[in-house]
Structures are given as structure tokens and as C-alpha cells.
């Protein structure tokens, strides 16, 4: 009987370890939130930098290839996407990272042990692609893995951190998404810092996006390692997945801030699995949570509705607010907590407030000042960020609105009297 090659045995073992890890990450069960949080906002991290490498003072914005294209990528798609970000005006709104996900590389390293782009799909090489993107004042992102293989079984960077980081820098890469597959069972806290150190030792400033799926609670340790860290497993283009991931990410609200952000995964807006109202809620809550805004659809062929959502400057401004405090769920009501108020502080003593209806029918949702941490005598003006109009002035005590099923209304409360947030 022929013996099984050692390489194959190691590969099978790595696959077993990885799949076991992905099947059973903690916190998959959705915790039912308390009816309110007092005080709703943890201010202990205000003004504190996370990873201080000069990047991510606000959450990253851009585009990533995975959600729409998966492995079906090539250099033409990346160039055309960069062109589309410019021609649509999305780049002017802050979407400046063009990020290539898995499947860009050859199936094996070269004879010198280095990574190489797939010659069939990226024949011009990554440096030429980076030059093309940079000419448009955009930035190029690339993908690797803190394991022996990537999730699509291309070479990973575990134990190759220094060589790969230097290679990425030489190509002009601006962003690294670092995944968690085929990790040999080594703890993430041991596998992710070496790439941070390797990136920092290059001559180039590279955004470091940790993608370990929230398995080992990265919010607790990744603030000094990466510029963002995934808090959840992969999102899918469905209402069930998107709402569950929002709840999981909310758990870690107090750990995000300038320099390092909780990452509930890329946007699914425009990919067809949700309704317009559901996508609008998706974008609103991601913005409020100070999540990375990485477009996941084909921006070369967007519908008008998709563009309307992704280009809402007032909602983007919430995400990019310099105060950098992640908003969170502050009260719930209705059946199974489907009637929700989310809120967060903004610069200028303002609050962003979202009334999110996750029920199956229209409901009236009311935000109470005590739930928002406001003094009962505080008066505010209320601006609707989707209608782009100021609705009322000098409101105090409570504010409510009818919200359609699966819709989300988003407002900014600006003080018209002294505003005090608990």
C-alpha cells in the first residue's frame, strides 16, 4: 500500500483544525439585549488611540472583491472597479481602498519561497496594478492569511511574515486583509502580531486588517495589533445574517476607537439578497457602529437605489465623525426585541439616533431621553439623514416615529439647549 505524502497529511490536518475552529466560534448565539443600558456610552476610551501607526483615525472606506466576485477576479476587474469609484463619485466621498481578496496568488510559492500573482488572472503583476490605482489617488489592498494556506488554499503567510510584508511594500500595497484559515491550531494572539511587526518594519505604511472571525475575542487584544479586527464570522447577503452580525458586533462597542475599529464584515448593499429598506438599515447601522464601510457589490453595475444608499453623505459623515465613538443598541421593545433604538455620541455635542424596526409589521418606535443618557430638560433639533431635512426644533423628553417593517430611520439630535450625555 502506497504511503501518503507528508505534505498531504499536513494539509489534511490543517484543514481539520481550521474547519473545527470555523464551525464553533463563540458568541454565535444571539444574546437577547437588556431593555436599556445606563449609561449607554462607555467614554473610557474617548481620545485614546488604538494601534498608533498613523492610520484609521476614522473607519476605513473602500471596496472589497469577495462578496460579489469570490475567486472570479482578475486585474481587469480591479482596474474597472477603480475607474468606477472615480466615475461615480464614490471615491470623492471617501471610498478610496480597492481591496483584492483571496485568489490573486499562484497556487504555490516560487522557487525562492516568494508569493507570486496568478499569471493567468494578474499577468501584469501587483505592482503595475498598484501603480494604476495610485494614479487615480486611490489605494490598493491585498489579502493573505495567518495560516499555512489561505481560505481558498493559496499560500498563506504564517512563518513568512517578514518576506511577505517586504514584498507587499515593494509592490506599493496600502492595505492587508489577514485571514484565519489553515492556522494549525495556533492561538490568534500568537499569529497576528508577527505580521504587525513585519509591516511596521517596512518603509511603507500599510493598513492592517485582522480577519480572525471573532473566534478569540479580538476586541480584547487586537487594539495594539491591527487597525481593525473582525468581530464575527462572515456575513452573507441576507436579513438574518446581517441583523445577527450587528448584534454580535454591538457586544464590543466600547473597544473601538481612532486607530482601531470593530469590523462586522463588508457591506452587502446591492448584492440582491435584501430589500431596499433592509439595505438602508444595513448601511445605517454599520455607519452608526463606526464599522468599516467596504462596498461588496459590483460598483461597475450599480442600481440607482444602491448608489443612493452608498452615497448618502450625511450617513457617511456619521461613520467618519472625528469623535470616533461606536454607537450601540440602547433600548429594545416589541416581540423578541424587534423594535430597537440605536444611538451614539458625535462631535459637537450631537447624537446620532436610529429607530430600527426588525419586526414584521410597521411599529412606532420611541427614543426616550433617559435611555439616550440625556437630561430630561435638554432640547434638540432633529434632522432626518435619509430625507435630508430638519423635522423638528426644540424637542425634549422623547421622540418617536412610525417605522415600516425592516426599515431604519436615522437622525441627528443637535442641541438647542445644554446637551449633557451621561
TrEMBL record:
<protein>
    <recommendedName>
        <fullName>Alpha-galactosidase</fullName>
        <ecNumber>3.2.1.22</ecNumber>
    </recommendedName>
</protein>
<dbReference type="InterPro" id="IPR013785">
    <property type="entry name" value="Aldolase_TIM"/>
</dbReference>
<feature type="signal peptide">
    <location>
        <begin position="1"/>
        <end position="20"/>
    </location>
</feature>
<dbReference type="InterPro" id="IPR017853">
    <property type="entry name" value="GH"/>
</dbReference>
<dbReference type="InterPro" id="IPR041233">
    <property type="entry name" value="Melibiase_C"/>
</dbReference>
<dbReference type="GO" id="GO:0005975">
    <property type="term" value="P:carbohydrate metabolic process"/>
</dbReference>
<dbReference type="Pfam" id="PF17801">
    <property type="entry name" value="Melibiase_C"/>
</dbReference>
<keyword id="KW-1015">Disulfide bond</keyword>
<keyword id="KW-0326">Glycosidase</keyword>
<comment type="similarity">
    <text>Belongs to the glycosyl hydrolase 27 family.</text>
</comment>
<dbReference type="GO" id="GO:0004557">
    <property type="term" value="F:alpha-galactosidase activity"/>
</dbReference>
<keyword id="KW-0732">Signal</keyword>
<dbReference type="InterPro" id="IPR013780">
    <property type="entry name" value="Glyco_hydro_b"/>
</dbReference>
<dbReference type="InterPro" id="IPR000111">
    <property type="entry name" value="Glyco_hydro_27/36_CS"/>
</dbReference>
<keyword id="KW-0378">Hydrolase</keyword>
<feature type="domain" description="Alpha galactosidase C-terminal">
    <location>
        <begin position="337"/>
        <end position="412"/>
    </location>
</feature>
<dbReference type="Pfam" id="PF16499">
    <property type="entry name" value="Melibiase_2"/>
</dbReference>
<dbReference type="InterPro" id="IPR002241">
    <property type="entry name" value="Glyco_hydro_27"/>
</dbReference>
Amino acid at each position: 500500500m502506497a504511503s501518503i505524502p507528508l505534505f498531504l497529511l499536513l494539509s489534511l490536518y490543517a484543514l481539520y483544525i481550521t474547519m473545527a475552529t470555523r464551525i464553533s466560534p463563540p458568541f454565535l448565539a444571539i444574546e437577547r439585549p437588556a431593555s436599556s443600558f445606563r449609561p449607554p456610552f462607555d467614554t473610557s476610551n474617548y481620545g485614546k488611540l488604538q494601534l498608533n501607526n498613523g492610520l484609521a483615525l476614522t473607519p476605513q472606506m473602500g471596496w472589497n472583491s469577495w462578496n460579489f466576485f469570490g475567486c472570479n477576479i482578475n486585474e481587469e476587474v480591479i482596474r474597472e472597479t477603480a475607474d468606477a469609484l472615480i466615475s461615480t463619485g464614490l471615491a470623492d466621498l471617501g471610498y478610496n481602498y480597492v481591496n483584492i481578496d483571496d485568489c490573486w496568488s499562484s497556487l504555490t510559492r516560487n522557487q525562492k519561497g516568494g508569493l507570486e500573482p496568478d499569471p493567468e488572472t494578474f499577468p501584469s503583476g501587483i505592482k503595475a496594478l498598484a501603480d494604476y490605482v495610485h494614479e487615480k489617488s486611490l489605494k490598493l489592498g491585498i489579502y493573505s492569511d495567518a495560516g499555512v494556506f489561505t481560505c481558498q488554499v493559496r499560500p498563506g503567510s504564517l512563518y513568512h511574515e517578514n518576506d511577505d510584508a517586504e514584498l507587499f511594500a515593494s509592490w506599493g500595497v496600502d492595505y492587508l486583509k489577514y485571514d484565519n484559515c489553515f492556522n494549525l491550531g495556533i492561538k490568534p494572539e500568537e499569529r497576528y502580531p508577527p505580521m504587525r511587526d513585519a509591516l511596521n518594519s517596512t518603509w511603507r505604511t500599510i493598513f492592517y486588517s485582522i480577519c480572525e472571525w471573532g473566534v478569540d475575542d479580538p476586541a480584547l487584544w487586537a487594539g495594539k495589533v491591527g487597525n481593525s479586527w473582525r468581530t464575527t464570522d462572515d456575513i452573507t447577503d441576507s436579513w438574518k445574517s446581517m441583523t445577527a452580525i450587528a448584534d454580535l458586533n454591538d457586544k464590543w462597542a466600547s473597544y473601538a476607537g481612532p486607530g482601531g475599529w470593530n469590523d462586522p464584515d463588508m457591506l452587502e448593499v446591492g448584492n440582491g439578497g435584501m430589500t431596499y429598506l433592509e439595505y438602508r438599515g444595513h448601511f445605517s447601522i454599520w455607519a452608526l457602529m463606526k464599522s468599516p464601510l467596504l462596498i461588496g457589490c459590483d460598483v461597475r453595475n450599480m442600481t440607482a437605489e444602491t448608489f443612493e444608499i452608498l452615497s448618502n453623505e450625511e450617513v457617511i459623515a456619521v461613520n467618519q465623525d472625528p469623535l470616533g465613538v461606536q454607537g450601540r443598541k440602547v433600548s429594545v421593545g416589541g416581540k423578541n426585541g424587534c423594535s430597537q433604538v440605536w444611538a451614539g455620541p458625535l462631535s459637537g455635542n450631537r447624537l446620532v439616533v436610529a429607530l430600527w424596526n426588525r419586526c414584521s409589521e410597521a411599529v412606532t418606535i420611541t427614543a426616550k431621553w433617559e435611555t439616550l443618557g440625556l437630561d430630561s430638560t435638554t432640547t434638540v433639533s432633529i434632522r432626518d439623514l435619509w430625507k435630508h431635512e430638519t423635522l423638528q426644533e426644540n424637542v425634549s423628553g422623547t421622540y418617536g416615529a412610525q417605522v415600516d417593517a425592516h426599515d431604519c430611520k436615522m437622525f441627528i439630535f443637535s442641541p438647542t439647549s445644554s446637551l449633557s450625555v451621561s
